[in-house]
Amino acid sequence: MSPVTELMNCEEYREIISADPAFDGAAGHLAACHECQEFRRDMQSLNLKIAKAMQINVPELKLPELPEIETENVVPLAVRKPVSKPAWFALAATVLLAAFIGVRMFGVSVHYDSLGEEVLAHLDHEPAALSVSSTPVTARRLERVVPADVAELDHSAGLITYARSCEINGKTVPHLVIQGEHGPVTILLMPEEAVAAAVALDGDNVHGVVLPVGAGSIAIIGARQEKLERIEKSVLKSVKWST
Amino acid sequence: MNTSRAEAARRRRFDRIVAVFHADMYRYAAWLCRDKAIAEDVVQEALLRAWKSLDALREEAAAKQWLLTIVRRENARYFERRRLETVDIDNLTASQEALLAEAPNEELEALRESIYELDDDYREPLVLQVLMGYSTTEIGELMGLKQGAVLTRLHRARLKLKEKVADDERS
């Protein structure tokens, strides 16, 4: 038992046991407190009743009509973790997109002071890229966006749900999106954009990094709560410049 | 592997996974939407989506959570599309009543109604924990919540049910 759970008072113990009746910590407290023993028994008894009440009839399995899948065009991808849908993220992106279109319509050219600034601004140009999805892009599309003469991908970075050629600093770069634990994670492969060291990116509700990779760089951006270290490692492992 | 063999292998994999987890998918959908017909629709849509994105599932060990995540998303989509009001517990339809498996039992019936009456935010983690056997960490991952938030919701859900049971016993 951890010392922390041993030091629980009655209120804390009851909160835990009512959240998880199988909790078996705080044995010291439990042995000394008859009220908590009774509360625990009540909760476990209630839980059995809840389990019984939740039993429902399950109808026979009827499969829907399953469309043909082009198995040779489907990219094998890593399993994704469940994600929450950050609706605010898409909304914010849409608003910023509208603002950007407004600026473009009035012919005002946009200048960015740094690569990081341009990368963050680019995210707002493509709200479609930020939708939560579990459908992978096809191998054909991926090959078009990431041609073999630009980079090789071994697909271990994660489920690629979006792939499009975009422009960063006047150069066409592959814009990919994988699904992280807290929503879409953007990956920009920039084989011709060299950076001396990793550049941290800090945008509205997003964070990320531009990592130096050979003669180029890779930008990885996700929701603020997304832990990017694991994704950075797998992306670096899965991408190899062809030139 | 040629295309037809790959297709056959893909289909066999899908059938195997669905055979194991179909009941869980249906139960989860039914407790999310509280309607038999809607649950069947949601499961059908979820199966279709699972079929299309089966290649995204690398590890069979993750299949249950993967499928339940799809069910959860399809349920949300269904209600988004139909813009349905949540089910009024006072107006249970025959379809909803037909969900229930146990023989009529007054105490159990009262408890089911109390579970139905719980807010979605409280009912869902309870279903995942009691019916699906998920840990609070796994529930947090599936619902996009921190573990502390899951514990709070489960604590409040059980206290509400405990109070309801006590009220029923008194009356």
SS element count, helices of chain A: 8
The end-to-end span of chain A amounts to 56 Å
Number of domains of chain A: 2
State which percent range the strand residues of chain A make up. 15-25%
Level-2 CATH architecture of the largest domain in chain B: Orthogonal Bundle
Spatial separation of the terminal alpha carbons of chain B: 68 Å
Oligomer: heterodimer
User: Could you say which structural class the secondary elements and strand pairing of chain B correspond to?
Assistant: mainly alpha
Which protein chains are joined by the largest interface, and how many residues does each one contribute?
A: A-B, 50 and 69 residues
Radius of gyration of CA atoms of chain A, rounded to a whole number: 25 Å
SSE layout and pairing:
The complex is a heterodimer of chains A (243) and B (171).
Chain A: H1 3-6, H2 10-19, H3 27-32, H4 34-53, H5 87-105, H6 115-123, H7 139-145, E1 151-153, E2 160-168, E3 171-180, E4 183-190, E5 199-202, E6 206-213, E7 216-223, H8 229-238, E8 239-241
Antiparallel strand pairs in A: 1-8, 2-3, 3-4, 4-7, 5-6, 6-7
Helix pairs in contact in A: 2-4
Chain B: H1 3-33, H2 36-52, H3 63-82, H4 94-97, H5 106-117, H6 120-131, H7 136-143, H8 147-170
Structure description:
- The complex is a heterodimer of chains A (about 240) and B (about 170).
- Chain A has about 240 residues and is α+β, with helices and mostly antiparallel strands.
- Chain A has two domains: about 50 residues, no CATH class; about 160 residues, no CATH class.
- Chain A is about 35% helix and about 20% strand.
- Chain A is built from eight helices and eight strands, in the order αααααααβββββββαβ.
- Chain B is an all-alpha fold and about 170 residues long.
- Chain B has two domains: about 90 residues, Rna Polymerase Sigma Factor, Chain: A, CATH 1.10.1740.10; about 70 residues, Orthogonal Bundle (Arc Repressor Mutant, subunit A).
- Chain B is built from eight helices and no strands.
- In chain B, helix 1 packs across helix 6, helix 2 crosses helix 3 and helix 5 packs across helix 8.
- The longest helix of chain B is centred in the N-terminal third of the chain and has 31 residues.
- Chain B is elongated, with a radius of gyration of 18 Å.
- The termini of chain B are far apart.
